[in-house]
Amino acid sequence: MKVSDFDYPLDESLIAQTPILKRDESRLMVLSRKTGEVSHKNFYDIIDYLNPGDALVLNDTKVIPARLIGVKEETNAIVEVLLLKDKGDNIWTTLAKPAKRIKVGTIVSFGDSLLKAECVKVEEDGIREFKLIYDGILMEILDKLGSMPLPPYIHEKLEDKDRYQTVYAKNIGSAAAPTAGLHFTNELLEKIKEKGVKVLFITLHVGLGTFRPVMVSDIKDHEMHSEYYSMTKEVADELNKVRENGKRIIAVGTTSTRTLETIMTKYGKFQECSGNTNIFIYPGYEFKGIDGLITNFHLPKSTLVMLVSAFSNKEYIINAYMIAQKEKYRFFSFGDAMLII
Questions:
Q1: What's the pLDDT tens digit per position in 303-333?
Q2: Are 198 and 241 contacting, i.e. CB atoms less than 8 angstroms apart?
Q3: Are residues 41 and 77 in the same domain?
């Protein structure tokens, strides 16, 4: 199976540069997995597609203000560092640019030396490991010095950094937002609960895979980077009950999907656990953990398009994306949403 099979022509003027004023007033395309039929709604209509006893599973990861601009101590050259993954002992996996200027031993200073970073390992494709040096609490320092790591296709300045967080973001650790969740408001979630739907939270910290395009021609040659996930006993028990009662599990986003599928593949049921996953879902994969998926419109040839194609049907997905462009839906992180059921 070729990566090029998941390409589609995109009108770049449809790439959303800023979030919509009210989260749940974004548009919602509803796609039938069985027929490929498409209907057009607003996101607040999502409640009409959720039934009492169903479970809505959301990723409560919180994005770190992880994009840092500093200077090399030896030369004062400007360096950009994107913190991706905390490896412990203040060692972080990062993307650095210009990477060629960063060697082992290079020290980068941020905010008049409020934070320093020493390169301790050089890897390929701009990846560097840095040891962070600071006094105080790192997250407070990042709040002062860092900015939100918006995807490269967003060129507008984000006026309110909370708009690149879900309203339920809790567990700090992501290098990118789980963007399908950006459409929910607290009021909408309360209405969903009042309808008898179980609103449950798992965690997956979005990492390097979000920033890396697929560079191979054959899908099977692509290797996903691992990301940390966790599920509590309470959530696992609720999800198993939903399954036993014949109700549906609706995943909010590809990150929630990958977490649920990882756990079901590993254990055959939901259970309390944590670890790292590099699960790669593409057509031919047999889903074990979800019955519906809420997601945004994704980049051509991305692993995310492959995942939604696996859950539905590649032809249905590409056709839906063509309809979305004709109907002027907004694409990607700050764009509109799709419900696949």
A1: 999 999 999 999 999 999 999 999 999 999 9
A2: no
A3: no
